[in-house]
Specification:
Number of strands: 6
Strand order of the largest sheet: 2-1-4-3
Shape: globular
Helix content: 40-55%
Length: 314
């Protein structure tokens, strides 16, 4: 069953609930850390350092990105390069390995715990593509944030949850660009995905981030290619049709952590415009915690299982 208002998105209800639930969990559990992060833009204002195809440049880029996340400056964070054969090295891209070879996997790179702290992992063949590199480093940053928060993460969900956490920390624009990358191959230009979450999932997460943190959508749009822009606009249109959900995510995120909530029926354009003008007024719909019946607890357990399954598939 699909609720009214979901037709603009091809995402299932379970995918939407999984995305909202994790974003709500981060806001509810860690308060100030995710209350109002910057929207990091892929430009010289946010990344002013000169970049070359060498380990030092990649490390500077990583440090710059980590600085925008809710992490302590004194953390010991290293950088590891993964060779095509799977060997991890602590520096150097290898002879000729920093090219822009085709993607053999959907997404690569992440982070691991080390004896002294953490290490971001980058595949050497991704270093030569700015979009794929920044996507991998954003995902690694999200994983390190979860390590620091001592979040218990199922390995099957690690990539997706790392990306949602990076998005909540302000790195969503970098991820959205990486969700759709066109690269020249033997048969012409081919579309690749450098993220674990798909284009629409990240677009929805970024649209929620924009509305909850009151960022300007125009800032997002000016950094997007046509495919990403269309996905973001569709996601934002859906989000704007869910004012109660946005209000709850902003002010009462703990009520959404379990992924159990109602979607609002689709409104016409004028209705949404008038609703936007009164955004500063209290919402007519409030989600109040209460004692659940045995039947509701059973349904809640089933819904949680669906959320976990959706995140695992994402």
């Amino acid at each position: 069953m699909r609720y009214p208002g979901l037709m603009e998105l091809s995402l299932s209800e379970d995918q939407i609930r999984g995305i909202v639930a994790h974003l709500a969990h981060l806001r509810a559990a860690y308060g100030e850390a995710f209350a109002d992060p910057e929207l990091v833009e892929p430009n010289g204002d946010y990344f002013p350092d000169e970049f070359k195809l060498d380990p030092e440049s990649v490390e500077r880029l990583l440090r710059r990105m980590l600085g925008y996340a809710p992490l302590s400056e004194d953390l010991e964070i290293g950088l590891g390069f993964i060779e095509p054969g799977g060997e991890v090295k602590g520096g150097g891209c290898g002879s000729g390995a920093c090219g822009t070879g085709g993607l053999k996997e959907i997404a690569r790179g992440g982070a691991i715990e080390t004896e002294d702290g953490y290490a971001a992992l980058v595949h050497v063949q991704d270093v030569g593509d700015p979009t794929i590199l920044t996507t991998a480093l954003a995902r690694a940053t999200g994983r390190i944030v979860m390590f620091e928060a001592d979040e218990d993460v199922d390995p099957r969900d690690e990539g997706a949850l790392s990306e949602l956490t990076a998005l909540a920390a302000g790195l969503g624009l970098l991820l959205l660009n990486g969700a759709c990358v066109y690269k020249k191959g033997c048969g012409g230009m081919k579309r690749h995905q450098a993220t674990f979450l798909d284009l629409e999932e990240i677009a929805l997460g970024l649209a929620l981030f924009v509305r909850v943190t009151e960022k300007k959508p125009g800032v997002v749009r000016r950094h997007l290619e046509i495919t990403q822009k269309e996905a973001f606009d569709a996601a934002l249109d859906w989000v704007d049709g869910q004012p109660s959900l946005v209000a709850a995510l902003a002010d009462r995120p703990e009520t959404l952590e379990d992924g159990v909530f109602s979607f609002e029926a689709k409104k016409g354009l004028l209705s949404r415009l008038f609703a936007r003008k009164s955004d500063d007024e209290p919402s007519a719909v409030h989600v109040q915690p209460r004692e659940r019946s045995e039947e509701e607890r059973r349904r809640l357990a089933e819904a949680k299982a669906l959320v976990e399954e959706a995140l695992s598939e994402g």
